[in-house]
Fold this protein.
Amino acid sequence: MTSYTTRMNLEKPNRGTQNWDTIINANMDIVDSAFSETYRHTGTFNGTAGVTVTLSRTADSTSDYTVYVTPTTRTASIGDIEVEKTTTNFVVKSHDNNTSDTFEAAVVFVNDFSYLASNVYEKWYVSRSADITNHASLTNSGSFASIVAAIGSDAAIISFPGNKTYVIDSSIDTTASSNDIYLHFQPGAKLKPASGATLTVYSPEHIIASPRQQIVDVTNNSIDPLAFTVATGKRSPGWLGADGTGDESTELEAIANSVSGGVILLPFSTFTVAASSSDYVECNGAIIEGQNTTVVGYLGNYVDKINLKLNNDDGENNPTADFAVHPVIIRDASIKMLRRVGTNKYAIVAQSSKGRYVQASLENNITTTTNSLASTSSDATAFRVTELISPVEVVCGYTTKSGSSGTWSNSDLVEIEPTYDGGLEYVYQRCTGSGDYAEYTVTVPSDGFFSVSFVRRSDTSDDVDILVDGSLVEEALDTTTAGSDDIYTLNYYTTPGSRVIKIINQTAGTDAVRVVGINFAKLKDQRNDVSIDTHGVYVNDASVYDALNATSENDIAIFDHDAGKWGNGYHGGESSISTTFYCDGTSTSLSNGEEAICQDLEIVQSYTIDWSGSGGGSLDVTSEYISSFGGYYYKWSVVGDMNARSFYTTLFGVNENFDELMLPKYYDISALSDGNYVLPKSNYIEYRQSTSKQRFSITHTQFASDGNNYGGPFLYKDSGTYHKYYNAIVANGYKNVTELAGINFIQVD
């Protein structure tokens, strides 16, 4: 059977094919006719007057050839490079009137583009002008951002001239209008993003640079300086400055987090990362490819390795000799909320399925003395999750007045669409006096957006004015409705910065203007760049259930064989406790009742568990709670020296309302007697509430070398308390622990 190549439709002769040499010769003729002719010319720039270069041969038309101009020296600003073509010559112009620097021009005569490529790429050069201090600015001609905007939806190559650092103070997304923009970095060319600024490129294939060439200076942003939309091609930590010397965990983790999966290339003979398995580098589900590379340190969460030797592990997917598979942490961009509920209680709120939310409450200093290091019921501990609920609605806005006249009173916001029977109601203000006003001083974001919301009822004011810095933007607004009571929101745009928004009730009599607030919105519709100071969390306990029991550990629990006591969290024994709340990468401190809105929400903690006073060992613990769509991740690691009789790496007390176990084995839990029920080995367990069909699940690290004398993970039913899930690396056995790490991903709908 005759077969052909996919691009040029060349016949591929089989072994023994007659006249095979004729076929090969015909193929060679086709290839020869398709190849381009390429000529090289050199010259010196002559400003906007240009330099005329004579073609090596006459072209039939100007579309028969393409010119690529590359500066070969750089003693002064060159600016945009323009090429004017005729059939006999072309003119090279420098828009910054450069007359001293030299260039090289490659002229390509193309015979048949259909064989060689589907697109012709226009090449743009970023300006090296010292006057451009921020290449994310659209106002500077020749800046990186201005070129991306000018390209629009076209296919193009953007070239960064060498030996120059290009600062970007805010994020640039080259995929905003086109997935066909390539970035070419000449030697010594580097982008330098500010803190929080990210360069987004369609794929690693769209980067034209050596894998050992640094193209991004991560001095100001080592977390997320680079992002890709898809994982096609190979990405390298060398792009972020890794050079095969020193600890390069930061560069590897940042390039791993740039996109999930794909291939990470380590083009070095030796590559050094984290020094302990409790602090391994997350590889985000990527394939790690070396060039006969030895990795000194620990890697985790990769799916395969190629031409790579892992110096400090057993060659499997986990950094410890205890082979394990970790859940992949996915940081979504949905809006989340951090709440300070009380002195010892916080809550993290994220969006969930079915139009609902998930709220995890975290408390500290709650302990038990039963077989535990804790000596009281309130020993000092780090924060742990004690409650997991699914609010039916979460709202937030800004209600603090900077000035007012008349009498304003508080009202609970009850005009919420979902049915609710509890929670924290949002509080807004109302007044009845004609001419009475309220002023709100807010910071308007860079796009000028703000909104004003009112409660509409049949008895509310029909004449309300809205002013911004004294200028009228809405006159005689009618806030009444003939239908059901509802919330009415108006969106406005004004000059960014600090602005005073004034709302005046012009209705005489007793009709009330009911101001819900500035920038009021449901959490799922809220922005993270507007002023917020008030929130409401609405629950429906009758049909949407709390998933966790506060008297359970709900993370990890460790029993020291020599001390004969439990430690961690609910069991106490913690000292040197440090807790930091991060909203979008910024350390955040809240007073009671306050909230913060962000896209990336995590709680980082560290502490020591010490059994030595009872004859045991000690462990240093680091942990992170990472808020995510539908729930949260709990990421933990320990390092030290202790002998564990039991080490439960996943332990959660699930409320009795969840009365069915769906996976890894079905149980009607309500029909079971109290006791333990061993489950098939799995890294996933799913509960369901039989009436509402609400589900609760845990995805966790699965260790292979478990010394679990129960034979695997198990369900423990304790009527009147919980349906508890246990997974252990050792249970009622013996294991020396010096370092270990794991992840639990908790979800509820």
